[in-house]
Amino acid sequence: MSEPASISSGIAERYATAIFEIAKESNSLAKLEPNITDLAAALDGSDELRDVIASPVLSRAEQGKVMAALAKKMKLQPEMANGLAVMAQKRRLFVLPQLLRQLSDMIADDKGEVTADVASAKALTKTQSDKLAKTLKARVGKDVKINATVDESLIGGLVVKVGSKMIDTSIRSRLNSLQNAMKEVG
């Protein structure tokens, strides 16, 4: 990890921990979870919002006003709204994407869940997704939340990432292995 990324991660972790602890103390973790999802969607869908959080030109007060308006419009929990206000005041809004990831991971861990990133050649059906979650739960020992994506280049099979583990059963990887084995032979 590069030094700036590591610094950003550290900053995000401190703010995420503070927001998480305050929300846990006030029993509002369940209400905080949709806020994280909504904010992440807003960041993904709005170039202007990404520009605001990354802009060195906007003053602290201007960033604070934008975050306050956003918090009011999105009906964010007080813990999240106050966290965003402090981040704007300290010029730390640039770590917002990492903060949302950290908070999401902390809440999942608190609930005994783990997220599995699953790539498949075509969209998984509800039955397939449920069966995969059940199989992964037996292997990991925690409830598994599936984050499914479609990657047609896999041809068939799955690529599953849970934490630092990766299981690749895709036809693409098998063909690559076969190709490498054939190169070694001839």
Question: How is this structure best described in words?
Answer:
This protein is α+β, with helices and mostly antiparallel strands. The protein is built from eight helices and four strands, in the order H-H-H-H-H-H-E-H-E-E-E-H. It has a four-stranded mixed β-sheet with strand order 2-1-3-4, sandwiched between helices. The longest helix has 23 residues, at 3-25. Belongs to the ATPase delta chain family.
Taken in chain order, the helices and strands follow as HHHHHHEHEEEH
Biggest β-sheet strands, sense, barrel: 4 strands, mixed
Approximate helicity band: 55-70%
Spatial arrangement of strands, main beta sheet:
2-1-3-4
Q: For this entry, what is the oligomeric state of its chains?
A: single chain
Specify the overall morphology: elongated
Number of helices, counting only DSSP H or I runs of 4 residues or more:
8
